[in-house]
Predict the structure.
Amino acid sequence: MSGLPVTSDPASKSPAPANENQPPSAVRSFLLSRGNSAWSDRAFKWLMFICALSVFFIVALIAWQLILRSQLTISKFGLSFFFKSAWDPVSGDFGALPFIYGTLVSSLVALVIAVPLAVGVAVFLTEMCPKFLRGPLSFLTELLAAIPSVVYGLWAVFVLVPILREHVNPFLMKALGWTGLFAGPNFGIGILAAGVILAIMILPIISSLTREVMTAVPHSQREAVLALGATRWEMIRMGVLRNARIGIVGAIILGLGRALGETMAVTMVIGNRPEIVKSLLSLGYSMSSVIANEFSEASDDLYLSALIEIGLALFVVTIIVNALARVLVWAVTRGAPARVV
Amino acid sequence: MKKSTLLVAVFAVCSAVAGYAQKINGAGATFPYPIYSKWFNEYSAQHPGIQINYQPIGSGGGIRQVTSGTVDFGASDGPMSDEQLKASKVKIIHIPTVLGAVVPVYNIPGVSAELKFSPDVLADIYLGKITNWSDARIAKDNPGVKLPNTDIIVAHRSDGSGTTYIFTDYLSKVSNDWKNSVGRNTAVAWPKGIGGKGNEGVAGLVRQMPGAIGYVELIYALQNKIPYGYVKNAAGNWVKASIEGVTEAAASVKQMPADYRVSITNAPGKNAYPIASFTWLLIPTPAPNPENGKIIKDFLNWMLEHGESETSALYYAPLPESVAAKVKATIAQLK
């Protein structure tokens, strides 16, 4: 019950008692007319159990196939495959490290940009948005989620990249060049561009889920914090965000999942160069991009096996990242007395 | 009620018609897909009851599918290697169909002249040895053109492709450095540069970035009216890619091997365009399904007689007559 908003609104009265003369309700008459239901209950239980098992089965099947079909590179390179920077289809020397790096760093950049923005959007929509704006704004955020990634990619190539190249990157190089994270050459495309486009793509997922979670925070919580003398911002911080934080972390994990696996838009702007350079303006490559790019024309077996092992790497990285996120959720929520965030 | 009966009837008729059609499945290269689909459509229209499906899944996929016997024929932009032929369950015959070429495109602010590239310069730009447009070696090939002091941004294909195979095959032939340090394949470890997906990706990079150079298929450049440069051929002439120049390159290959697995880059002909290649259909023989094999054989003859004359409308270079005559003899031997 605690998940539902409890309102003390006098307008919402409980429904009027049923009229004695009316025939029994549809549910009641169904329950009265059917015979013994023990078998259907049992069947239902097993059916649901099988549904749940199918998830295990699918994951196991994927892992098994990936391992099976990347046998060649696994036996040739062993674990070094994951720590090597070579990617040379001609001489048959493969390593996954630059791709893992590119995927992780571009996703991280995306999170750094998207999370504050998405939480801000959600806070505004649930707590302070005037009614007439709420509909259009939430519709627009959800519309962002419906745009196909190739459209994002095209937009990034023709709009975002020139803006980055001509305005944003020169500024970043001048202001933050000393960190080494924003060193030239300035192509416009690169890891930063990929991160920005990913941020836009995961924004709607994070913000709409965050909004759902925040709406589910009981009104009594808000009212209690306000009654103690908090300002509106303090109420949002202590009464809403604090109660919704598990859900918000969950939303971020889902967003991260999309960022890690995103292929099309990333490959259009990341530069497709398997290299590890500290600067975010430099070119990079991601795991899903290299699979999408090279799979169709990979004709020799070792090459194909290397690409499948990249898929395995992506699978493993996703699992590790998700596990880390779970640990984070656990750490955040473990014994949580009321305190100022 | 009536509507659903009608639907069932329509469905029945459709499946009955479809059931009559002799279906032939092929898969492979994307580069010749437009001309293949035109051919297959026309052939089907002229031969009712025959339906040829072609899936442009890429050369690698085409080779895998035809060698494992899941399709009736395959297609590839690069010839199969000896190991691949040995590993194949069925004997595979290469049939050249049309020719493609790769052209250098560039974007240099303030330069509207058509640039000339000698082979070693092209290789060294892609190797990262020539890094500025004002380099003396570029200037030497382009007297009278004022080249700016701009860094060269190298663009290449990020997806594995026949185009990359042709281009790197050419660079391997004209530059020992390239051959030893990079080599030829559908995707290579590029010493330098930005990857763009597809011809449109490379063309987009070049268009957007001042100082960029890239390579695209001749067909793509012609269809989109993208200006491209001259390349010096093996005979020492500057040639601008054209359909005739590509066909001449194929005609000037001195010894056409019996299995047609030949690279025609850097061909010796006087006007031959040097960065060109055949694309092949991969025909298993004897055909796993003899009836389909017979139709494929008939189609191949039709292709030589009718199909080849329609290629230039789609900017593909047709086979030279000498090669076509030879291919006809090979087709006759197909089982």
About this structure: The interface with chain A takes residues 30, 57-61, 63-64, 76, 78, 80-81, 83-84, 151, 153, 158-162, 182-190, 193-197, 201, 204-205, 208-209 of chain B (CB under 8 Å). Residues 21 and 48 of chain B are 8 Å apart (CA to CA). The longest strand of chain B covers residues 91-107.
